[in-house]
Structures are given as C-alpha cells and as structure tokens.
Amino acid sequence: MVRGRERQAVRMSVEVPLWRALAAYRLLTVVYAIVLFGYERERYERFWIGVLYLAVALVWTVATLPRVSGAARCTRPFLVCDLALALAGILLTPLADAQARGADVTTLPSIWTAGPVLAFALRGGWRWACFASTLVAAADVLERAHPSKDTLHNVVLVWVASIGIGYVVEVARASERTLARALEIEAATRERERLARDIHDSVLQVLAMVQRRGTALGGEAAELGRMAGEQEIALRTLVTGGLLPASGGAAGAPQEAAPVPAPPRDRPDGERVDLRSLLAPYAAARVSLAEPGAPVLLPAHAAAELAAAVGAALDNVRRHAGPEAGAWILVEDGPDGVVVSVRDDGPGIPEGRLAQAADEGRLGVAQSIRGRLRDLGGTAELVSVPGQGTEVEMTVPRPAGSRSPAAGTKAPGTTGKQNSGEIRS
C-alpha cells in the first residue's frame, strides 16, 4: 500500500496542471482573437486574409489540444509548426491592414501568440523559451517597422514571462527527480530492514548456534564453529549496511532461537487471523502466556509481524537473561489496538547496552522488534531496571472497522500488567 502511494506521488507531476492551463489558454485566446477581429473588421482592407488566417488558427488549436496535454506528445515538429503559425499571423497583419505597419494595432493572432512560446517553455525549459520569444520579438519589430514603447513593453513582457516559466519548470523537474530518488531510497531501506529482520530470525541465529555448539564439541567441529562465527559477522555487517561488527564477533553469539510461527503469507491481505494461535507455540515451561478468552483478530500480515516481534523479545530473554529465566506474555485487546507485553525476571539491561548493540550491528531490538512495529504503525516501549528484569510493550493499532470480538477485554483474571488468568505453559 505504501509503495503504491509513493508511485502515485511520483506520477502526479507539477507539470500536469501547467499543461492543462496551456491548453485552456490556447483555446480561450484563439476565440478572443476571433472576437477582436470581428470587432475591428472595418479597419482591415483585406478582410479575407484575416478570416482565412483565423479559421486556420482555430482549426489548428482545436485539433492540437491533445498535443499540449503533456511533454511526451508535444514534439519538436509540433512546436516548430505552432510557432511558425504564430509568426505568420504577425507578419500577415500588414497585408490585411496596410496601416498596421506604422501604428500600434493588434496583430491577427493577438495574445494567442504567447501560447506557442509557453509551449516551448514547458517542453524545453528557459532556453527553449528564450529562443521562441526572441523570434516572436523579431517578428513584432519587423511588423511594426518603427516599434513604439508599447511594442517593446509587450515584447519584454512575453520574453520575461516565458523564460521565468521555463526556469520554474526546470526547477520542478529537478525537484521531482530528487523526490523520486528519495522515495526509491526509502523503499530500498524498508526492504533492507525487512530482510535484516528475517535474516536475524533465521540465518544469523542458526550460524550462532553452530558456532556455539562447535566450540563446545571441539576438534573439527570447533573449526566449523569458527567458520560459522565468521560468516555470522560478515552477514550481520552486510544487512546492517556496513556497520563495524563487535570485537570478538561470534564469541557473544546468541543461544538457540525461539520457534517462530510461519507467517500466513498465503492468506489474502484483508483476511484476519487470531493472534492467539500464533503466540501459542511460544508457551513453554518457563514462558507463560496470558490471553483473552475471545479471538484477538488482526490482519494476517500484522499478526505475523507482531508474533515475530514477540519471538525476537523471547530470544533476547534467553540470550541475555539465561536459559533459567522466566518470561511472561500478556495479550490485551483494546478498542483501538492490541497490546502485547513480554516481561522477564532476569538481571535487566545495563544502561547504554542498547545503543552499543546498535553500533555493533545487532538487530534484535532495533529491527526485529522496533522496526517491525514501526512498519505496522505501532510502537515498542522497553523498560528495564537492573536487577528487576525487562519488559517490552508492543502496541499495534487496529485498522478502522476491524474491531475484534474481544476488543476492550484483557486476559481473564488479569489486572494491568499482571500475568495471571488463562496461562499456557
């Protein structure tokens, strides 16, 4: 959904309304030129020249409206023909009105002449606009023979306006390219974070387990463990974007990973699943699960990501608090979202340890937990007191119109963050 909105933002170019405005301008000004010609028809000695020219201009303008719908269809041959028609109208004015050469009178195309110049500006920027407006200025001066102050004023006005619009278009195009590149980088970063989470939940933990068990067995297994540790460091560095690995690398390898429920990838995006069924495999001898009595329904992707974040939190408990530490999972289903808390009775996290882990490229909290919740539009709060354990509270907002039957309820017999009620062990 996010990528779809990004692609739509890129397609919505700032040039689109400018091209639409140009099409409307061309149509309105050719009608204005015809009305003005009819109002001043008495001064034209060769009336038929004006009628013929304006008829051609009207047909050309209406027939070429699709051409000015965007830069792709506004080709160079079209621009040349369009500008040539405007210049021809200016130069034909003295033939239709012999007195026009020495007087400040309106030319046959009138202000329609600015349309082709603006088309040059939108298509090629300020340089093309400068070229087209210069030709129009030369034609005006040639048609007047003795240009007056008003003639020069009109020439400068068209010149400055077209060049200014051309420059604005160039700046807008550069800004769009920058925005498109930023969106590509953001999408690539999000994909990298997703892959990093998946790798952390699977490959990195397997390599760490091989390293730990190989070292314990000794002999050839120790060499295999050493190689697995090196590969873990290299892979961790790769998925974190080149961050320096921890000194000693594999020596601090995590213990065996918690079982991660397979995400329901084959389910439709709009289908909801019961979060309890994904959290049930985590219940064990030292892991208690307290949940509501009614189903806790979430979209399939959100439920799978939240369950994976819980698995990452339990893995951190085993890694840092030890295999003998106890953990409690509490599920609360509220009207606005689902809150899952993971608490342990370990020694807690020393101050500054999370920042150090992020610098070392370890992804447990930064990506596998907080990254997942951030992508779901939720939050992950971590509270740790040395000697009193750690609690991770993960909140996922509920999509509008998807209230669960259990919304507003807690696990039976629970109060606040108590871990009593329906317990699975």
What does this structure look like?
There is one protein chain. The protein has 13 helices and eight strands. It is about 55% helix and about 10% strand. It folds into three domains: about 1-175, no CATH class; about 200-255, no CATH class; about 260-425, 2-Layer Sandwich (Heat Shock Protein 90). Helix 2 packs antiparallel against helix 5 (about 115-125) and helix 11 runs antiparallel to helix 13 (about 365-375). It has a six-stranded mixed sheet with strand order 6-7-5-4-2-8. A two-stranded antiparallel ribbon has the order 1-3. With about 425 residues, the chain is α+β, with helices and mostly antiparallel strands. Strand 4 and strand 5 form a beta hairpin. It is elongated, with a radius of gyration of 36 Å.
Instruction: Order the strands across the largest sheet as they lie in space.
Output: 6-7-5-4-2-8
State the helical fraction.
Answer: 55-70%
**What's the overall average pLDDT, rounded?**
75
Q: What characteristic shape results from the CA principal axes?
A: elongated
State the low-pLDDT regions, or none.
1-11, 242-266, 412-425
Summarize the SSE layout with pairings.
Blueprint (H helix, E strand, L loop, with lengths): L1 H10 L3 H25 L7 H17 L12 H21 L17 H11 L1 H19 L4 H53 L1 H15 L2 H20 L32 E3 H5 L7 E4 L6 E3 H22 L5 E7 L3 E8 L8 H7 L4 H12 L3 E6 L5 E8 L25 E2 L1
Parallel strand pairs: 2-4
Antiparallel strand pairs: 1-3, 2-8, 4-5, 5-7, 6-7
Helix pairs in contact: 2-3, 2-5, 3-4, 4-5, 4-6, 5-6, 5-7, 6-7, 7-13, 8-9, 11-13
Keywords: Kinase, Membrane, Transferase, Transmembrane, Transmembrane helix, Two-component regulatory system
InterPro entries: DUF5931, HATPase_C_sf, HATPase_dom, Sensor_HK_TwoCompSys, Sig_transdc_His_kin_sub3_dim/P
Protein name: DUF5931 domain-containing protein
